[in-house]
């Protein structure tokens, strides 16, 4: 059997796109607790396995990530934890733009998402707030072997 490798060593910052409309989400108490649990108050608590420190348009900084596996096959579930710091009050965007790009082919997978299961748009963050955002995704069926890069 062929091994499938996710290469996380190269995270390439991309630009934040403005102008998309995202309706306000009404949060219940459970949602509010989940958001509160995702906000990190002490910088010393942030210890990602992979340190990135990429600043995107002076709005947010990807401090680093954790990933639960280094190899995966199509249909496998991968979990990535992003540690994101707001560098301004009310960043101009809502989503994190992430793509998984195959190394040997033009196959890619769109992993764009709003942090904390869609509950915490980036525009709601205040300067200095750090959010721990966990994303789970299934590797696309037919994804070719040979490695991939995660673009953020």
What does this 3D model show about the protein?
The chain is mainly β. 7% of the residues lie in helices and 31% in strands. The chain has a five-stranded antiparallel β-sheet with strand order 1-7-4-3-2. The chain has a three-stranded antiparallel β-sheet with strand order 6-5-8, with no helix packed on it. The N terminus is likely disordered.
What order do the helices and strands come in, and which of them pair?
Layout: H1 29-38, E1 39-40, E2 50-56, E3 60-67, E4 77-86, E5 99-102, E6 108-110, E7 130-138, E8 148-151
Antiparallel strand pairs: 1-7, 2-3, 3-4, 4-7, 5-6, 5-8
What oligomeric state do the depicted chains represent?
Answer: single chain
Shape: globular
Alpha carbon gyration radius: 16 Å
Helix content: under 10%
Proportion of beta-strand residues: 25-35%
**What sequence of helices (H) and strands (E) makes up the elements?**
HEEEEEEEE
Give a count of the beta strands, DSSP E runs of length 2 or more: 8
Spans where pLDDT lies below 50 across 5 or more residues: 1-19
- Strand order within the widest sheet? 1-7-4-3-2
In whole angstroms, how far apart are the ends?
30 Å
For the sheet with most strands, the description reads:
5 strands, antiparallel
Tell me the number of helical segments per DSSP (H or I, 4 or more residues long).
Answer: 1
Average pLDDT level = 84
- Look at the helices and sheets and give the structural class: mainly beta
């Amino acid at each position: 059997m062929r091994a499938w490798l996710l290469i996380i060593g190269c995270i390439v910052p991309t630009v934040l796109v403005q102008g998309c409309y995202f309706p306000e989400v009404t949060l219940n108490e459970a949602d509010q607790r989940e958001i509160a649990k995702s906000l990190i108050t002490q910088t010393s608590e942030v210890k990602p396995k992979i340190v990135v420190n990429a600043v995107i348009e002076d709005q947010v900084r990807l401090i680093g990530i954790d990933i639960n596996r280094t190899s995966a096959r199509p249909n496998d579930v991968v979990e990535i934890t992003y540690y994101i710091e707001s560098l301004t009050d009310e960043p101009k965007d809502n989503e994190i733009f992430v793509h998984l790009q195959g190394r040997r082919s033009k196959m890619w997978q769109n992993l764009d998402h709003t942090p904390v299961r869609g509950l915490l748009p980036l525009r709601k963050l205040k300067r200095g707030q750090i959010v721990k955002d966990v994303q789970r995704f299934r590797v696309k069926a037919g994804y070719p072997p040979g490695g991939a890069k995660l673009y953020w």
